[in-house]
Amino acid sequence: MAPTKADIEAARNATIEDVLGPGLDVLFCGINPGLYSAATGHHFARPGNRFWPALHLSGLVPRRLAPSEQHLLPSYGLGITNIVARATARAGELDPEELRVGGERLARLVAEVRPRVLAVAGVSAYRVAFARPAAQIGPQEETIGGAALWVLPNPSGLNAPWTVPRIAELMRQLRQPSRPASGKGSAPISMG
Hints:
This protein is of the alpha/beta class. 29% of the residues lie in helices and 16% in strands. It is globular and about 45 Å long.
């Protein structure tokens, strides 16, 4: 059942549990939960968000999963977290310091969980959280917590230039052997 308007407003500053498991191949990382997602307790839950359709089209999962099926992701070697845990109506409500602190927490989590790839969905937030103002969509030269690093477009329906097929194509590449964008060695991102 869809959350009511009151449920959505009451979800401000709520958090959603990370979806983690042993031996993750790819850990997806959103910017922060939206109010709709926090009200449901499921990542990327707002109707119109392209994460779940793109994930299926990419071939990383065998069928389109509903946000309520996020618990199945670890069985496919996938997980989900966020840079910032608290829910807001818009990512623009997060200040730069909150994103930087979230980036530090994310680096610790990745070092602990040890996924092969960290895929951050949201280039603008990534740029602020990790002090990489020139970062572009795609594989990065740096690593975080020992994981290869990719930056994906934000799958929000508001990010119209990035269609489901374009996002899916980038996701498909996450299962290929990782190498830095330049072909040179990778440097870890140092946090703090």
